[in-house]
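tl;dr need the bound structure. longer version: we got a ligand ((2S)-2-hydroxybutanedioic acid) that a collaborator sent over and nobodys looked at where it sits. i said id run it. heres the input, straight from their email, havent touched it
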Amino acid sequence: MRKPIIKTLLAGATLALLSGMAHAETVIKFSHVVAENTPKGQGALLFKKLAEERLPGKVKVEVYSNSQLFGDGKEMEALLLGDVQLIAPSLSKFDRYTNQIQVFDLPFLFKDITAIHRFQQSATGQSILKSMTKKGLIGLGYWDNGMKQFSAKKPLRMPEDAKGLKFRIQASDILEAQFKAVGAVPQKLAFSEVYSALETGVVDGAENPWSNAYSQKFFEVQPYFTESNHGYLGYMVVANAKFWEDLPADVRSVLEKTLAEVTAQVNTQATAFSDGDRKKIKESGKTEILQLTPEQRTAWQTAMKPVIEQFTPKIGKEIVDAALAANKP
Ligand code: LMR
């Protein structure tokens, strides 16, 4: 008599467990390294709001900003291990996973953000999103931050002014070559270490879009900025490919639609963020923003051009050509 009772109890418990699992809430941890008052910070929060409104009880999004969960040395590894489910690293931080994406780091390649959007939306740009699936990463969209500006402890007007100065760079070989091309000394450092490296003189300069320079207070420890717009800082929102593919189809489809809307919103607001933060930096009176004459800009462009030639074979000529083609409307 006892055995059937135990069997029934066990069967009941299994059923309860299974039905509980069927209704379990999917937790999506979205980790990033910047402040909340930036294009990426706002994008992550908007994604959380919309996803939870649209999938109540099915999806919960936890956003961790400012490297509080994982800094940029660790976030990719954490995604692959399933410790977080979504991240949006800068395009410069993927070079261990795909060579093609390095096209975004080439200095003075794109005319402006509109050209970058044209390239991202082209067949080539979209194929880069899917270029890392075999390595376990799936790209879900491109988010802008903005164009990068040089900053340093001394005024940078001509490439020679950078000679011998130490510049913090993201972990990208192209950015390393870019600074070496002007005789400077690049140093790869995690984003969370930049303020203190600038403050203590571990490095003399950096390159950042206005929103990072403002939200991390870099302008307080860099007396000069040069409005160089020499390169792009944008992000790829990526998920662990297996996690994403294993989501129930209806949930995945709502999340993809939501991400597409958030992407459009982030990219519409990023320019306003840049303009607003540039203005706040200027008004702070703590740093000077230098403008380049057309001749000075050409001098930087000429000095850094060999970097494009050096890296084109590695990235793929067809990718670089497609990027250049996007400069023409
Ligand atoms: C940096 O390291 O400078 C940037 O990639 C940080 C970011 O995510 O904008």
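gonna send this back to them w/ a short note. Confidence is low (pLDDT under 50) at residues 15-21.
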